Amino acid sequence: MDESDTIVGKPLRGEDCEVVTVNPNAETDTVECSHGGHANHTPDPNSGLGRRALALRGAHILIATVEIASVAHLWVCAITGRRDRALTGAMVVLGIEGAALIVTRGDCPLGPLQARLGDPTPLFELALPPAAAKLAVPALAMVTSVGLGLLIARRPSTEGSGTR
After folding, report:
1. Residue 61: how many CA atoms within 13 Å on its side-chain side?
2. Whether pTM exceeds 0.70
3. Beta strands in the chain (DSSP E)
């Protein structure tokens, strides 16, 4: 990959054409291609990351996936009234994440370590625009809180004990 295949020094991904010019001052990474058209080529978010930063990013993605799956299972149990061991695990995962978010005042606990390892891109910005990424943690906290409230409100009846 030569210099013409980069935007502000970052390799491009998804290109199917030869880059002719790049406007580094544009709001988006618009590239004029040799075929005369324009394409929105995006910088590769993994370019320039060391092994430790990539390993942390992978672990961070895995953790986020488990946490989102925990929120989903919480909601399934809240809606169906089901209680199972997976719900207990989900509650432990969400409790640990909630405590970590309280300690870090709403910021991702892995953010500072990620930055120290040379990864400046917040996890949710890998999938969302920056404005939406900043809202992801508060939105997920709200969705989790509402699901937990519904779970508590829909307590299953205990058969044989006379209570409901």
Report:
1. 9
2. no
3. 6-7, 10-13, 19-22, 30-33, 38-40, 42-43
According to the model, what pLDDT value does residue 155 have?
75
| CA 158 – CA 52 distance, rounded (Å) | 49
Take residue 70 and report the two structure tokens written for it.
């925990």
How far apart CA 40 and CA 127 sit, in angstroms, is: 16
Domain ranges of the chain: 3-43, 51-153
Query: DSSP 3-state assignment of 6?
Result: strand
24 with 7: CB under 8 angstroms?
A: yes
99 exposure class (CB count in 10 Å sphere: 0-12, 13-18, 19+)? exposed
- List of the chain residues with pLDDT < 70: 1-47, 157-164
Report which of 70, 38, 31 is spatially closest to residue 151, judged by C-alpha positions: 70
The structure tokens 């409901």 sit at 164
